[in-house]
Amino acid sequence: MGTLASVQPTFDRVAINLGPVPIYWYGIVIALGAVVGLLIAIFESKRIGFNEEYAVDVVIWSIPISIICARIYYVAFEWDYYSQHLDQIINIRQGGIAIHGAIIGAILTVIIYTRKKKISFWQIADILAPSLLFGQAVGRWGNFFNQEAHGGETTWSYLQDTLHLPNWIVDQMYIDGTYYLPTFLYESIWNIIGVILLIVWRMKFNPRRGYVFLGYLIWYSIGRYFIEGLRTDSLMADGLRTAQVVSICLVIFGVIMLVIRRNAVRYLDGSKKEAK
Question: Which of 139, 141, 249, 254 is the most exposed place for a label (fewest CB within 10 A)?
Fold first, then answer.
């Protein structure tokens, strides 16, 4: 390792410049997560004989709506700043979107779409849950490129010798003269594990409809609660970390709904009609 003064971030925020137009890593990462998430949804739709066009339509609609809702959510909790900088409200190139806002947007999209098409909300929510969680896992790497959503101060030794992170991550965690905990990485790994568990659960154990989606809410929220406690840039309300409060509420909601839906149709049981 060189001296601290010589440490430079591994990546610039801008991936390439197309003439005067900069293409940011943040946008590339989000687009990649969306594309792979869509492929996962298409695969699962085909596997269970569900009309894949429904999954494609919902994903296509939910991406822009989720980004808009994520930005609105973030701006709402940072209104003291944005009320004085109105021109920055739509500027997301430097980050500034909230995952919980994106989740709200995605759920609203599915609710409206399924009502319009008269199909089961729970079935399509189950299909899309791993895709959404995978998109969140990939999206956290946008925070890596932007050097944001990190934890508290740490040391090079802890990152290199204790966590055994590669140099390209360690160097990117060196921000304004200080090393920081890579909480974006913790959440990304937690989400990837969740994707694997949800897919295995769905393919091997034929859960009741709605259980995969509710399992997603519970799994993500548990991880987010603890990881959020390590971050230095949490959105706050009345002295509380909003992400932790929302996570607790989602876990409680998920558990209650698991109990309520304990007699629901099982995922691959095509002999019964599933309620919307």
Answer: 249
pTM of structure? 0.89
Residue 22: DSSP 8-state: E
Q: In what order do the strands lie in the sheet with 153-154?
A: 153-154, 178-180, 174-175
How many Å apart are CA 185 and CA 142, to the nearest integer?
Answer: 11
175 phi/psi in degrees, rounded to 5: -125, 120
Separation of first and last alpha carbons in the chain: 58
- Token pair, residue 81, equals 């700043």
Which amino acid, one-letter code, is at 85? H
- The DSSP element (H or E) to which 179 belongs, if any, is strand 178-180
**In whole angstroms, what is the distance from residue 209 CA to residue 218 CA?**
15
Q: Is 36 helix (H, G, I), strand (E, B) or coil?
A: helix
- Concatenating the DSSP letter of every residue in 226-264 gives HHHTTBSS--EETTEEHHHHHHHHHHHHHHHHHHHTTTS
What 3-state class would DSSP assign to 79? Answer: helix
